[in-house]
Amino acid sequence: MAPRRDLRPGFLLSFRRELDRFYRTPFLIFLTIGLPLLLMGLLAVVFSAGLATRLPIAVLDLDGSDLSRTIVRTVDGTPDAGVAFRVADLSEGRRLILAGKVHGLLYLPEHLERDVFAGRRPEVVFFYNTQTLTTGNLTLRGVSAAIPSVEAGIRLQLRTAEGQPLDLALADLAPVSVQVNPLFNPTLNYAHFLLAALLPSVLQVIIVTTMTYTVGRDAATPHRFHVMRRLGGGLWPAIAGKILPYTVLFLAVLGISDAVLFGLLEMPLRGERFILLLAATLFILATQLIGTLLALLIRPTATAISVATLIFAPSFGYMGIGFPRLGMNTFAYHWGELIPGTWYLMARIDQTLRGTPVDLSWRPIASLAIFVVVLGGLTAIKLNAMGARPRAARGPDGELEEAAT
Known about the structure:
Elements: H1 3-24, H2 26-46, E1 55-61, H3 66-76, E2 81-86, H4 90-98, E3 104-108, H5 112-117, E4 125-128, H6 133-161, H7 166-173, H8 190-219, H9 222-232, H10 235-264, H11 273-297, H12 301-312, H13 330-337, H14 340-354, H15 362-387, H16 396-404
Helix pairs in contact: 1-9, 1-10, 2-8, 2-10, 3-6, 6-7, 8-10, 8-11, 8-12, 8-14, 9-10, 10-11, 11-12, 11-14, 11-15, 14-15
């Protein structure tokens, strides 16, 4: 018995059989190519603007003075917020917020200008919806940037009116200057971090679902499992030949999405391409092996698919994009470490936005490699256990008919 002679023909036969099944199964074509490209196209359209600007807010101006109008114009001039409505009372502003027509309400009290120039400290109030974190924080940022600039202008005007030189007045207003240098994504472009994270997250769910379905289809019954082993010249060649076509397809799909991100949406690619490709390959293999292992461990296949979806569908919340992982509790933090997508996103962000040097990029790559080795070992143990089971008696007609499917 020559293992090398058995391995190559068996692998190629399993590979060709899977390609033939793929072309004869429209559902697999849609699941592996159509669905991810459709979802990625939809997400690209949604986040193509990159920046959320001119979010609508309402204004309740009870003062009607030059100062209040200056504040309103300054807020309206910020890139984050735009004055869309002027309301007559707080109840009307509340209704607009609850209806979703505005994301905040700026309240300017009576006698605002009089109290300011009299040396009092009147309050300008901003109500915003904290349930929608992104829009609420963006409108708050716009208002928080506008009000201090107006306040500084008033203080400067008062000091110069008292005879203080302009340069001294400016120095007194800002005795300690702060230099702010935003790194990696200074424009807060959502396509650069949120879209780049959503695409692998969506693909991760599709990969594990596809592999659970296609492996479970051949391992659902002892007879089908025996047919797969015979066609592959052994269990490992059969599984490898079965997985490889999908590995190539998913790499191609991920490459198309990256071409859109780096080309059309102009996402920066500051790192090394070969590290990004290596991380993508390990990420796809690790996710495929998880789907394969679930298909071998859980019966029926529909249950295995449900478990795979249950594990990976909410995984985006554990990857540290919408909520920082360092702020998570112990369970959520370590659960995120057990998801291959977490490490792939780390490598992806390092090589796109940050431009991390090669010597500092080893940790996510090593973690993904460990995933592949460990999951491959567990799959091997399960395959060996299944291959050692006694074969059930089957008629020759049934075997030939099953092998032809």
